[in-house]
Amino acid sequence: MKHLTDIINKIRWDKRENEEEYSFGYFDNGLQTFDFKSIDFEQSTKFALAVKREYEIKFIPFHKIKRVYKKGEVIWER
Predict the structure, then answer these.
(1) Per-domain boundaries in the chain
(2) Where are the alpha helices (DSSP H) in 14-78?
(3) Which of 16, 28, 39, 62 has its CA 20 to 30 A from that of 49?
(4) 75: helix, coil or strand?
């Protein structure tokens, strides 16, 4: 199984990948999702992704991210 950070780096840096096709599922009072394009990498840390919401930045720890989707299909699951 690939590590989550390997998948994130591939989506971010591989020019063959379309960022708009990816989203993530995480648990926070039930399963929530966010799009790859909403990640603010400048504010992210080695422990959490900074995700831009309507009026705030939400930090989502890597251990809470449970799924990666591509075009709605699960491609990685913990």
Answers:
(1) 4-77
(2) none
(3) 16
(4) strand
Model pTM above 0.90: no
Residues 72, 7: Cα–Cα separation, whole Å: 16
Give the type of residue at 63: H
Distances (CA, A) of 72 to 35, 47, 51, 62: 11, 25, 19, 20
Q: Give pLDDT tens digits along the chain (78 positions).
A: 689 999 999 999 999 999 999 999 999 989 999 999 999 999 999 999 999 988 999 999 999 999 999 999 999 999
Cα 28 from Cα 15, distance rounded (Å):
31
Handedness of CA 29, 32, 38, 42 (dihedral sign): positive
Instruction: Give residue 11's identity as a one-letter amino acid code.
Output: I
